[in-house]
Amino acid sequence: MLRTFSSLPKQRRAATGLLLSLSLIVPLAACSQSSDQQTASPDSSASASSSSSASSASSASSAPSSSETATSSSESAQAEVPAQDENYPQAEQLKDAKTVSTDAAEVKEVNGLVNSYEQTMSSVPSAPEGSADTASSDSGQPRQFLDEATMDSINKVAVDNAAEEYAASAAEYAQNGWHYEGTSTVVGSPKVAEGTYQGKRARFVEVCLDSSQVKTKDSSGRELQSGGKRALNIYTLVESDGTWKIAQHDFPNNPDC
Question: Which of 100, 109, 120, 208 makes an SS bond possible with 257, Cβ 3.0 to 4.6 Å?
Answer without folding.
Answer: 208
